[in-house]
Amino acid sequence: MTLPDDPFIIELLPEFVDAWLNDFGEQFKTLTDTKNSADLFRMGHTLKGSCAQFGLNEIADMGVELMEYSKSNDWDKATETEEKIIQAFSNVKKYIEENID
Questions:
Q1: At what angle do helices 57-71 and 75-99 cross, to 10 degrees?
Q2: Structural domains counted in the chain
Q3: Distance separating alpha carbons of residues 68 and 95, to the nearest angstrom
Q4: Does residue 2 belong to any structural domain of this protein?
Q5: How confident is the model at residue 4, as a pLDDT?
Q6: CA neighbours within 13 Å on the CB side: how many for 17?
Q7: Residue 71 is part of which domain span?
C-alpha cells in the first residue's frame, strides 16, 4: 500500500478511515435495501473523490463501481461490493496502526 507523503494527510487518514467505516456501515445496507440509486450514486461519487485525495485509489475505484451499479440498478453487484469496501478500509486501518507513528 502506498500512502501520500504529505504529513497533514497522514495525520488525517486514521479519522478519515474511521469515519468512512462508520458511515458506510450505517448507510450502505439501507441504500441497497431500499434500492435508493440516487443516494448510492452520491455515496459512490463521494467515495471516489475523497479516497483519491487520500491516495486510496483502490477504494476510489470501488466508488466508481458503485456509481455504475447504481446507474444500472444492479443491486446484486452493489451488495457484493459492500464487503470489499469494508475490507479495504479495514486493511488501510490495520496498515496505519502497524506502520505510522
A1: 170
A2: 1
A3: 29
A4: no
A5: 77
A6: 24
A7: 32-95
